[in-house]
Amino acid sequence: MPLFAAIQTRKPFFLRCRGFRFLFFLWICIPFASLHSQSGRPDSSNTADTLAIINDYYSVRGIEQDERRPVNRVRRVLHTAFYPPRKLVDILLTTAGFSAILIDEKKVVQKFEDVFYLYRRELGWFPVFNFVTGTPKGYGISLFYHKNYTSALIKTGYADEEIWGLKAKLSYTFFRRNYVWQSKVELRLDNDDDFRFYGIGSQPLRDPRSRFLENPAARFGFYQQRRFLVKYSLGVRTSPDWEFFLTTFYRKRSIRSPDDPDPRNLVNVFQVEQIPGFRIDAQHWYNELSFRYDNRELLKISSPGLRVEGYTGVSIGVKNDNSRLFRAGGDISAFIPVLRHNRLIVARLNFNMVESLEASRPIPFTEYPRQSSFRGANRKKLLRSDNYSLLSSLEYRWPLTYHLSGHLFVDSWIVGKTPRLLTIHNSPWAAGFSIEVHNQYSEFVRLTVSGGSEGLFLRGVVGFSKLYRDRADWR
Question: What distances in angstroms separate CA 65 from CA 54, 71, 122, one per listed residue?
Fold first, then answer.
């Protein structure tokens, strides 16, 4: 008889007895239950199981207060410091928040694209609006085209018959030798009679190079400028972090006093005959080499990392303009995460310099370095003009929503004839708050409110605003 059949026909004695069967069952089940109960806790040989021991709370030594995280104190200080701007944001967004509760963000973005994108999303348009304290409002439109590796842009702006501008750009991206290349052509034409010259030096009213009249009507003078620019640049990205650029452009600049009889016009404030660059149609051909290092993830604007830019260039006068200028500078920004990955402290230094290669020829007052990134005054205000310029900035940036972020910032701007003469004495400064609407890589709406040495300043820009600008953007 097979063994299996024998086992089935005659059971052992301990299986035939009910008492033994019960004990056998306990003998089998208790070890498995014990293993199951111990599998979710540490080994008793390494960690004491305090839950299994009844301890008198008062007999345990070394416990005086509840545990606290070391960061709690820092977070409490930050919570108090950011209470006012947080409440301001809450007030601004309360109305929008009630309506946004029932709206899916993806549907909002899709609706946005449906309005501003046309023809298979290759063509598009965007309104342009510019509001700045003390200057006429500007309106315009941006038309853009993008297909595969070709893109084009036409942007117009108009405030009045004396303030208008036109910009056109065409770029093409291609691949050679495992590198990404981009070729770009740009054309600009603009006219503006709202520029303001404050003189030269860190203290313009006391600097003899400023050439003020004996009893000037104001501490600045209005002047009118018409500018024509043609620019070509070739850029190459050799790695995800490194980019190199070759830029050349021709620029013609005409400087005049405004036609309206304002006592603050340049001719009523300065000795214009002794100011280099006034009433001269300056024509320059500028050539520049620059690099950019940016290790932020996919170059996103709200990610931690380091951004470094440096440039050097030579400007040569054309036709009757015999001036020759050497330019150089650098821009470094550190994006430091605080508490969370997308909450950043941004520390920035932006240095620019210009020197004349002709010792006998002074530098035209319109060719001094500009600080278009200073957020305490209109970019058309030449608050400080000198050979060397340094902008320092400290900012806290945090997300409000996926496409909206807030900024608290402090900016300071100093100038000097030499690097040793750079001083913070009497230097413009500003502190304020801004809100921007952006995608992952660039911003296109920014509202800024600041106060400082130049008083209260408000600025609202709609239409692809930029905080980092190249030399061609110096108006």
Answer: 21, 17, 64
Q: So what's the pLDDT on residue 94?
A: 47
DSSP code, position 385 = -
What the block records as the tokens of 26 is: 């306990």
Answer whether 312's CB lies under 8 Å from 293's CB. no
Tokens of 336: 């430091």
Question: What is the arithmetic mean of pLDDT over 341-370?
Answer: 92
The pair of structure tokens assigned to 18 is 């009910």
Question: Which letter, b or e, does each residue of 282-295 get, where b requires 16 or more Cβ atoms within 10 Å of its Cβ?
Answer: bbbebebebebebb
pLDDT of 37 > 80? The answer is no
The whole-angstrom separation of Cα 155 and Cα 143 is 6
Q: Residue 244 forms beta bridges with which residues?
A: 236, 291
Pairing of strands 150-160, 457-462: unpaired
Query: Helix (H, G, I), strand (E, B), or coil: what is residue 325?
Result: strand
Q: What share of the chain is helix, strand, coil (3-state, %, to 5)?
A: 20, 45, 35
- Orientation of helix 83-100 relative to helix 72-81, angle to 10°: 80
Contacts of residue 374, defined as CB under 8 A and 6 or more positions apart, other chains included, come to: 383, 391, 411, 413, 428, 430
Q: Is the pTM of this model over 0.85?
A: no
Distance CA 367, CA 286 (A): 12
Distance between CA atoms of 228 and 186, rounded to whole angstroms?
Answer: 11
Note the Cα 242 to chain centre separation in Å: 18
- φ/ψ of 68, rounded to 5, equals -135, 145
Q: Which amino acid makes up residue 114?
A: D
pLDDT for 337 equals 94
Q: What pLDDT does residue 305 have?
A: 93
Rounded CA-CA distance 300/438 in Å is 11
What is the radius of gyration, based on Cα positions, of the chain? 34
Q: Are 378 and 134 in contact (CB under 8 A)?
A: yes
Q: Count Cβ neighbours within 10 Å for each residue of 150-177 and write b for 16 or more, e otherwise.
A: ebbbbbbbbbeeebbbebebebeeeeee
* Cβ count within 10 A of residue 27: 9
Which tokens is 314 given? Answer: 């030579």
Q: Which of 292, 280, 349 is nearest to 320 (CA)?
A: 280
Q: What is the mean predicted confidence (pLDDT) over 188-206?
A: 94
Q: Do 199 and 385 touch, CB atoms closer than 8 A?
A: yes
Q: 61: exposed, middle or buried (C-beta count within 10 Å: 0-12, 13-18, 19+)?
A: exposed
The DSSP letter of residue 274 is G
Cα of first residue to Cα of last residue in the chain, in angstroms, is 107
CA angle 382, 386, 392 (to 5 degrees): 75
**Contact (CB, 8 A) for 168 and 219:** no
CB 371 within 8 A of CB 353: no
